[in-house]
Design brief:
Elements lengths: L6 E4 L6 E4 L5 E5 L2 H7 L3 E7 L2 E4 L4 E4 L5 E6 L5 E6 L4 E5 L10 E6 L15 E3 L1 H5 L1
């Protein structure tokens, strides 16, 4: 799908703002154990590639969560700001950070093998295992 226009967002306290251009209007859910631990449930995020500008950098903390990725959050309020692949510096941004997501579509779930049985989404999506995503 074609890339959307720029979208603006911010953390809960407003110390960090961002402007990003998602690669498409389709977001996904990650059910991996790290995302569950990080946010208390699946991470709902949209891939923005490298098209992300963050303002308030002094208020951003980055946690080195694995060999391949890191996670950023606001030092002031704790808002989860991004999941970033280290090698390509590509961003996945939690959808709740954005001001306007009305025309976005839930299209994919990854690490489906780690999804707890206590919840499920009604939307029909592409389902991928961790191995299908990362090989």
């Amino acid at each position: 799908m074609m890339a959307q226009s720029q979208h603006k967002g911010r953390c809960l306290c407003g110390a960090v703002t961002l402007t990003a251009t998602p690669k498409s209007h389709v977001f996904g859910a990650c059910h991996c154990k790290m995302c569950q631990r990080w946010g208390g449930g699946p991470l709902l995020a949209i891939v923005c590639g490298t098209n992300v500008v963050l303002d308030g950098k002094d208020d951003i903390a980055v946690f080195d969560s694995s060999e391949w990725a890191e996670r950023g959050f606001c030092r002031q309020c704790g808002t989860h700001l991004f999941y970033r692949m280290k090698q390509e510096l590509t961003y996945a941004i939690p959808i709740g950070v954005f001001d306007d997501i009305e025309n976005w579509h839930f299209g994919e779930q990854i690490f489906i093998e780690d999804k707890p049985s206590c919840y499920s989404f009604a939307d029909q999506t592409v389902m991928k295992t961790g191995k299908e995503v990362f090989g």
